[in-house]
Amino acid sequence: MIECTNIYKNYGAISVLKGISLNVAEQETFTVIGPNGAGKTTLFKVLTGEIPANSGTVTFKGEDITRLSASARVHRGFGRTFQVARVLPSNSVLENIVIALEARARQIERGPLRQLRPTGRIKDEAVEVARRISLANKLDVPARFLSHGDRKRLELGITLALKPKILMMDEPTAGMSPSDRNATIDIILHVKDEDCLTIMLTEHDMDVVSQLSDRIMVMNYGETIAVGTLSEIRENAAVRDIYLGEEIGDA
Amino acid sequence: MQIGFALFNGLTVGMSIFLVAAGITLIFGMLKILNIAHGSFFMIGAYVAYSIIGTDPDSTWKLVVAAILSGLVLAALGLLLNASVFQRLRNIGEAYSLIATFALLMICNGVTKIIWGVNYHSVSAPDALAGAVMYGRFFAPSYSLFIIGLGVLTFLVLEIVVHRSSVGKVVRAIAHDPWMANLVGINTSRIYALVVIAAFFCVGMAGGLLLPNQSLSPLLFESYLLQSFIVVIIGGLGNIRGAFVGAIMLGLTEGANFLVLPDIPGILVYIILIGFLLWRPYGLFPQPGADTAGQAGSLAETEDVPATTPPKALLGSVVATVLAVSVLASMPFWANAGFLFIIGFAMVEAVLALSWNLLFGYAGLTTFGHAAFFALGAYFVGFLLRQETGIPFLVLLSSSLVLGALTAFFVGFIAIRRTSGIALGILTLSLGEILRRAINYSPALGSDDGLSGIPRPRIDLGLIVFDLGSERAYFWFLLAACSVVALALWSFTVGPKGRVLVALRQDPIRAEFLGINVRRYRLTAFVISGAIAALAGGLQAPWAQIVTPEAASYLHSTQPMLNTLLGGSGFFWGPIVGSAIFSGINYATRTLAGLSEVVSGGILLLIVLAAPGGVLGLGSRFGRMKHVGALHKRSTVNELTRIG
Amino acid sequence: MLEVAGLNAFYGDSHILHGVDLTVDTSDRVSVLGRNGSGKTTLMKSILNAGPRIYGRICLDGADLADEPSFQRARSGLSLVPEDRRSFPHLTVRDNLLIALTAAGKRTGLDIEQVLDTFPMLKPLTARYGSQLSGGQQQMVAVARGVMPRPRCLLLDEPTEGLAPVIVRQLAASLVRLCDEFNIGLLLSEQNIWFARFCTQRVYIIENGRIVFSGSWDEFDSRPDVKHLYLAV
After folding, report:
1. Pick the CATH number of C2-231 from 3.30.450.30, 3.40.50.970, 3.40.50.1370, 3.40.50.300
2. What is chain C's alpha carbon radius of gyration, rounded to the nearest angstrom?
3. 3-state SS of B609-636?
4. According to the model, what pLDDT value does residue B142 have?
């Protein structure tokens, strides 16, 4: 589905990615873990087109997309969520979703965008998306008044509204309490199933990682340390050393 | 020989500018306030020194003492303004603090006129500095050497304080995170006050020391203002080292201008500046690892975004609009000619402001050179009407629209690709200045005097002919045209495109990841905005019957900004409300020479301090407070039910 | 040492804290647990008078801080490490630590080398700028900066957020060592119960801006209802 080879990226003198290659299969959930500063977020930025790599190639479904802009990648089926949720703070939950739906409609057909108000179809669809992310009771609340967890859910919602083929999620449960975390895992598992999504994510919480991932890649200082299933990763001595440490009690 | 002399002169100019720019850099670096009034404080410094030593200072010492005294006077003024104005500005958005300092500029200029009058004075250099120093064939005026020495000295002092001392570390910590600085025990308010005082002392002293270099008049504020800003931008905002290098570069460019383009003084700077901004939008010395993403952000506040769907109670809005238009339409029957004239101007300015707010309030782009598009349209229509070419007026207007759109496309295509935030602002400002200077030195366009006696046209539609020759007829035409434009813009902004713009204004990265091509939409907004600004110019030319280069000046560019922010950029109709209020103030204070600036500046300042968010923002703020309260109650109830 | 009584805090019209009472004794280490939005961060900021509008008594060593501004509270011995870290981007790591000595006021702060010894991860980074650090490194800098003035009480707001498990362990060890060695009290707001348990002796649970439980970890363990109701674990 998505593949990258030999990605290098540096910010000035500091090189952040040193030859990363990976290959995510269709409908796989692929998790990147690693200590802070390992380059996980930078890798995400390169894969999604937010920043260009210094060298290396990215392909998506066989097409070379290395030089495509982020929006062009979105048109090809990328959906992206951020560590700190990016939603439109001054717009309501409904408007946030409507804007996403209209953005998708714009790629397909022009018709529904000729009238000023969002069409009834788009509105119904928006309410349906809000229901999926359990925000149907907060449709008119401006996003800046939402709690942290709700905001992350809304972000997931507007991303799903784009009907992506691959979902790129940077720390989907960051800053969430255990209860919110479980709810988010449920939603992700659910939508993955319903929409047949391929998912790539970064995450720190090993609980979340173990519940979601098919395969895991461990990074450190911009390099790949190991790739494999959860148990393979847990066995790996290098990974224990730099990331997991001794298993931590009930955290 | 001539080259050496030009470059030496350039260096002197550069150092003079640095002396003024240092204060702007200090204040921006710390308080994040771009102090537009700084040039006026420089002027006040010069006048204070002039009051102390008169026109013929007989010794260098007297000049220096006078400069220090005027530095002290300005420092005291700084202390006062810090407590009364700057401190409050820290809590409101960048854009609004910009208007506040513009208001200060108006007040200062008014006060200067009232105290010192409008006459020119010229102060000679003291004897010791009046001569020249000879080096073989090369001679350097002593006074220039004096200025260069002062510039270098000031730089060294600031450089050591900011970059080499522990004070500098405190200053840098506060500059980037005042909240956290407070938490590590730094008394930020005191440091702010000290920086403001230091900046004002510098500018007061600069006013005194540079006094012998120029003719003293209430226009002095302008002579260093723009250059200082350029220097500050080139250097990377808030960076003393950058400002110093920038000042030297700018001075040398001025020198080179004298050699290569003696006919159009001052134009080369802008051309080079534009090239520079496209090459390095973040200045010469962006801080190591600086968060350029933050800098590239927009100046627009994200707090209020305009509505992007038609209001639910459409009937009410229709009634209100019809009522407003009818009142305006009835004016030629009862208003006096002077008032009618002002209202006509206000309508055009309102359209100009609407077009500016399409960029600022919707697309999140801040431009400082919007008047350039206006002037383009005004000169285009004015010139062709005077030529009596016989081209139908409506064709002329449409052509001005197209001309504006094309120009905006070319400018935007390059500018939006490379710059955003303040860099884009300064780039557009420079383009405006280039246009103004080009007009200023074009005899065909009437140079300084502009085009006067522009005839009012007839509109021949075959079946009916409208003669717009009379004031009354043209007023109605103007009203109709402005209403149509406003309505067209409104329907654009409340449709799907408006929603896209508001999305990318709030978070361009999120917009990009919604699959919205951010650059293309920004360009679209830029083109529409430029086209409408040019149309506004085209509409105004036959109303005023005169077009002057002032139409393109940066002072005119500030007008749509002031109108928009005064009314509230978060509302589509904000710019119109602002234009109405501004014109009202202007009309009411028009007879009070000097005082009028003080009064309108004062009112503006009060509004900004009392109502950041604009006049319309005041109303919605009360509404929102209720909303927040209700929301909070509701969420508490939710939580409780969940737990229970 | 630190006493909070009847603390009410507001953001705009929103009433966030409702009469919070809480104490941290000298060298005492205390956790505040609660869900997102329960008021943990507001509590931390309120104690420093750094944001919310506050009403109520906050005393340090018996002296009422009344409406003292944050910089003075910092100087009298309260040190807040905010959840978003906020290392100064344009200062080096070393200067980030040194500048915090301003908060030592009349007391003497710690020696920077001592602090760096406790955070070995920072040693190779001292010349880097704050903006060149990763999230985890910034967190270390923020905590190290927090202890530099040798505060009477260190307030840590969700320090483990976004940290790798192995770094969480390092941080816990360094923190306990520093607090023990220099008699620093600790008020810790956390979501990570392992970390909170490792670092502190007592626990408060906050929900909707009210303290709903306080006691030792043993008492906490004997109340599964509390755990379930307020933390959903």
Report:
1. 3.40.50.300
2. 17
3. HHCCCHHHHHHHHHHHHHHHHHHHHHHH
4. 85
Mean pLDDT, rounded, for B626-639: 41
Let me know if residue A209 belongs to a domain.
yes
Query: Each residue of B146-165: b (16+ CB within 10 Å) or e?
Result: bbbebbeebbeebeeebeee
What pLDDT does B296 receive? 33
pLDDT of residue B280: 76
CA distance to B480, B510, B522, per residue, from A52 (Å): 50, 17, 21
Residue among B169, B628, B640 minimizing CB distance to C12: B628
Q: Give the minimum alpha-carbon distance from B621 to chain C in angstroms, rounded to a whole number.
A: 12
Within-domain flag for A219: yes
Which residues in chain C touch residue B242, judged by CB atoms under 8 angstroms apart?
Answer: none
Minimal C-alpha gap between B632 and chain A (Å): 9
B541 with B413: CB under 8 angstroms? no
Residues of C in contact with A243 (CB under 8 A): 164-166
Q: Domains in chain B and their CATH numbers? A: 2-285 (1.10.3470), 314-553 (no CATH)
pLDDT at A251: 38
Please judge whether A179 and C167 are an interchain contact, meaning their C-beta atoms are less than 8 angstroms apart. Answer: no
CATH number at residue A181: 3.40.50.300
Q: Kindly determine whether residue C149 and residue B290, on different chains, have CB atoms separated by under 8 Å.
A: no
Alpha helices in chain C (DSSP H): 40-47, 70-75, 93-99, 112-118, 135-147, 165-182, 193-199, 217-221, 224-226
Closest Cα in chain A to C170: A245
ipTM: 0.93
What would the pLDDT profile of C114-160 be if each residue is shown by its tens digit?
899 988 888 999 998 887 787 778 888 999 999 999 999 999 998 98
Q: Mutate which of C31, C35, C141, C220 to test chain A, going by most A C-beta atoms within 10 A? A: C35
CB proximity list for B495: less than 8 A, separation 6 or greater: A113, A115, A116, B308
pLDDT digits (tens, 9 = 90+) for B421-455: 767 887 888 888 889 888 988 888 888 889 998 99
Contact partners for chain B, using 3 or more CB pairs closer than 8 A, are A, C
pLDDT over 90 (residue B530): yes
Provide, rounded to the nearest whole percent, the portion of chain B with pLDDT above 90.
Answer: 36
Please answer yes or no on whether A35 and C133 come within 8 Å at the CB atom. no
Q: Which of C164, C168, C119, C165 is nearest to A35 (CA)?
A: C164
Q: Which domain holds residue A224?
A: 2-87+146-244
Name the helix (H) or strand (E) containing C119.
none
Instruction: Count how many domains chain A has.
Output: 1
Each residue's pLDDT tens digit, B39-53: 999 999 999 999 998
Give the whole-number percent of chain A exceeding pLDDT 90: 46
- Name the minimum distance, in Å, from the CA of B620 to any CA of chain C: 15
Q: Residue C34: is its pLDDT beyond 70?
A: yes
The reply to whether A160 falls in a domain is yes
